[in-house]
Input
Amino acid sequence: MLFNSFEFLIFLPIVFCIYWFLANKSLDLQNGLVLISSYFFYGWWSWPFLLLLFGSTVLDYFLVFLVASENENTAKWSLRIGVFINIGILGIYKYYNFFIEQFQSAFNSLGVHTSLPILKLALPIGISFYTFHGLSYVFDVYKKQQKPVANFIDYAVFVSFFPLLVAGPIERANHLLPQIQKSRKFNYNQSVQGLRLILWGMFKKVVIADSLATIVNAIYSNYANEDAYTLIIGAVAFSFQIYGDFSGYSDIALGTAKLFGFELLSNFKFPYFSRDIAEFWRRWHISLSSWFRDYLYIPLGGSKLGKLISIRNTFIIFLVSGFWHGASWNFIAWGFIHALGFLPLLLLNRNRKFVTNVVAENRWYPSIKETFQMIATFLFVTLAWIFFRAENISKAIGYIKKIAASTIENPSQFLNLPGGNSDPLALQSVIYYVMPMVVFDWIFRRNERELFTTVKMNALRWLLYVVIGLFLLFFFGTKSSFIYFQF
Amino acid sequence: MNRFLRKFIKYILIVLVIVTLSFVAIFKYHQKHPFKYTYKTVFLGDSRIEYLYKNANNLGCNSEGLKYTYYKILALNKNKKLKTIYLGLSHHSFSGYFNEYLTNEMEILPRYFVITPKPMQMLNEYRFLNLHFLFKKQFKLAWKSLTSRNNFIEGHFSYPFKSQVSIKKSQKRIKQQFYKKNGNFQPFSKEQIQYLNVIKYYCRDNNIRLIIINTPVYESYFENIPQNYKQVYVQNTHDLEVIDMSHFLSNKTDFLPDGDHISLTAYKKCTAFLDSVVLLNK
Output
């Protein structure tokens, strides 16, 4: 079930009403309802894959009792088995064919012809997310940071809570499980905040990202015939499309969870206002980057074992992060580019320069230096997004080459105004769709949890809600999936 | 909880009231300001016409079936000013694949809601969800009516993309338009043929010159059009003036990948040619 579908518009109010009016008598009833709703939500897309989700949940639930064992050997071996099975499931569905193809082409280049079987399996939606949920739980129990959960339903809700089931945020057991185990009372402010987030998330997805998708798809599918001007518009448009799409999804997830009395981890904090690539990664897909930091970077030694190890670890997490997104070289290249961007900051010890504050924290406008830093970071991220969006690495390189070649061939094209040879409406449309998102983000950047309350006048706030609602009504209807569902 | 629900319902009601009032206002506006078109010459047809000719008289609209073109002509000629209609008609216009655009397409029907007779009867054709598309479309059209002179009539010149033909995609297009999934020919669209005749008779009775434009297609696309479709085209247009532009363009870059829509580089050539045709026919 997609958030931006009619089914969800019917599903959500029904579950909300049953949850607060009928199931509010006991915690077990509330959690039971959340679990059934979550399975229904997932099963709506595929009932057979619901079994896989259930199987993975059952396995981790029982395994952690061994992982928590006082006997170190038992704990260690149980952890290994847990990691092996979780990664194994992910590997079979997501990476098996990729590795087979690489082996085959490697053998073929050596003159050895092999024909290894290729699996024709659909990728279960959200598998990368719920596997990481399960893994974080197993790791936390092993590190004694989390006690095994006795109640199966509590654990099953943690893994499959429907707002975060298919595209995150990737929750941590020590953050979400206590909320599941605690009695929840209806909180007016929390619910209102939830609705605001849903409204704004829907706007970002349905109005901005889906509209930009039309332009982006047209340009990327025909990049060989486009000029540099149009290709740059396409690349910039994708930067905002993926941001609108994924942060829109996250906002809807956070907002929906709030309606049920849960607070999820924040996933985005205005990443395009970052002043360097390190800050970008503290603001983009935060739940994933912090997952890799805690369960990969730090166990590998982090930055405490000298510069060389630190550089090695940085490259490992960026490459793994790229590979997590998809079994394809272009995602690995995307991760590699980000690692390269991170490297100078690491070498100069400037990677923790912008840790806490947001740009122009106590001012309305950024300084010239900050503006330059933000634009430079955005352009770097946009360049990397080309690898993320292109179907394969050769098309990504082709796209960049075409920008360079076309610029050298005809530099005056950048003065080409509407009516020229470039698509006359592309730039105009991109500006129309991007501007509201940039302006709103800038206004709300100091605290994303206080979305809309920055607007103090009640009437003005309501006007905003109504205008956004009307926009949604216009744009709602085309059921386009969220980009991160494929991961 | 009650406070929350009250506020939520209030919000939904405000949005719905605005939508409903606007919808009513559109129809009131439409009743008070009936079409006053003064077009003497118009270009009508589907996306092939929409991309072909950069001119304010181009009212071509993507996926437009002849049934809706006919209702458009009725609306445009309410003041009896129409003298010449250039109607885009390609071989695929006779294919049964077009039928789905006439009836089932949620995006198509709402466009023509106010120009079709007895709109409320037509409303019966809408399923619940389609009503949403109807609302959306009427708002967009109302907005257009306030900002341009194309009051309620959908259609205008659109810039095509810069592209080039792909033989593979062109073949796929041929299969989609002229063949069923099992490989048999698509049957001819009785409705399209019927409405072509209705348009013919209407134009004859109202002294409107009807000129057919066979829009440009890439050579390999043309070669792959089944012979029976070429025959049915001739049978249905032999009594009409036809401007055959099917071979007007030959470069790969003149077409979009499907081979039956022109590209950004070609529209200027077609516009210049059609300008001269219009001038000649004045």
DSSP finds 18 helices and no strands in chain A. The longest helix of chain A spans residues 72-109. The mean pLDDT of chain A is 86. Residues 255 and 482 of chain A are 17 Å apart (CA to CA).
